[in-house]
Amino acid sequence: MVVTVWDGEANRVCRVGGVLGRFAPVKLHGNFEYTSDHTWVERSFPTQRALSYLWSGSDPAEYESALSGFMFSFGRLDDPRKRFDLEEPTDWTIEQMASSPIQMAFFTFLARTVGARRILEIGTFVGLGAMQLAAAVPADGLVVSVEKFPVFADIARRNVERNGLADRISILTGDLPSLVADGSVASGFDFVLLDGGKERYGEFLPICIDLLAPRGLIVMDNAFFLGDAVNEKPTTDKGRGVRASVEYARSRDDLDLSFVPFSDGILLIRRRGG
After folding, report:
1. What pLDDT is attached to residue 5?
2. pLDDT tens digits, the chain, 274 residues: what are they?
3. Cys bridge to 199: 6, 26, 44, 241, which one at CB 3.0-4.6 A?
4. How far apart are CA 166 and CA 164, in angstroms?
5. Which DSSP helix (H) or strand (E) runs through 103?
6. Where do the domains of the chain lie?
7. 107 with 77: CB under 8 angstroms?
8. Is residue 208 a contact partner of residue 193, using CB atoms and an 8 Å limit?
């Protein structure tokens, strides 16, 4: 057992088998070592060496594939085409545009955990996410999904109809601020998935917070936006939009925030004390 602790003077100390030793390297299995300068950064992501050195393979790409297979198998996941009768667009595949089955399983789990009855999704694509989220709401629940591109919204409506979910899912075409202004989208959502219009995340996030029910949860996808939001000065409109939303969330002392370093980054947001 190896634990990193701090003494009264904020010096890093390694505890090994109950014995304290400052700045002593600690040899573990194989050739991997935790040393005195080891940081949390080195064990924050599952593919990092510090968190995968007991895996029997050697190629990091193979480990990613093995991890995916592990989560699909033990998480009881499958290709959504086997679950839904899907019409897909000709120019984009669901693998390119839709949230992965692993992500959607996590989002749906969160929606169930908060007991969501009303869900808002920003960014419908072809309706796959909305149909999966619909499984989290009760029979009288509702998923409202907003899509700015009419071609995707039309496909999504047809997918919702052909899968018998029209009574639980409402697909709206348009711009979130406009739909809120005209009353098409009203407050009181238990769960909000913000996953569309990255260049306007900074504008959308305050609206989503206002639309939350008292104990509601916002899941903001693509919180790193391909690494551009991590740049102090993002280089793309989408990166700047995501960065603006993260900075705004940090500025609100009434919000609880938690990053999930998975996929392209997920930011969980709720009102403090809710």
Report:
1. 40
2. 344 444 444 444 444 444 444 444 454 545 566 665 667 888 888 888 888 888 998 787 899 999 999 999 999 999 999 999 999 999 999 999 999 999 999 999 999 999 999 999 999 999 999 999 999 999 999 999 999 999 999 999 999 999 999 999 999 999 999 999 999 999 999 999 999 999 999 999 999 999 999 999 999 999 999 999 999 999 999 999 999 999 999 999 999 999 999 999 999 999 998 6
3. 241
4. 6
5. helix 101-113
6. 1-38, 86-271
7. no
8. no
**CA pair distance 195, 223, nearest whole angstrom:** 9
**Tokens, residue 16:** 């090994």
The CATH architecture annotation of domain 86-271 reads 3-Layer(aba) Sandwich (3.40)
Give the SS3 label for residue 90.
Answer: coil
How many other CB atoms sit within 10 Å of the CB of residue 24? Answer: 12
Cα 227 from chain centre = 15
Matching residue, tokens 């190629």: 59
Q: 255 with 272: CB under 8 angstroms?
A: yes
C-alpha to C-alpha distance for 266 and 108, rounded to whole angstroms: 14
* Contact between residue 36 and residue 14 where contact means Cβ atoms under 8 Å apart: yes
H-type alpha helices, 14-93:
60-74
Q: Which residue in 146, 141, 143, 140 sits closest to 132, CA to CA?
A: 143
13, 14, 15, 21 alpha-carbon torsion, rounded to 10°: -80
Residue owning tokens 């701090």? 6
Pairing mode of beta strands 26-27, 33-34? antiparallel
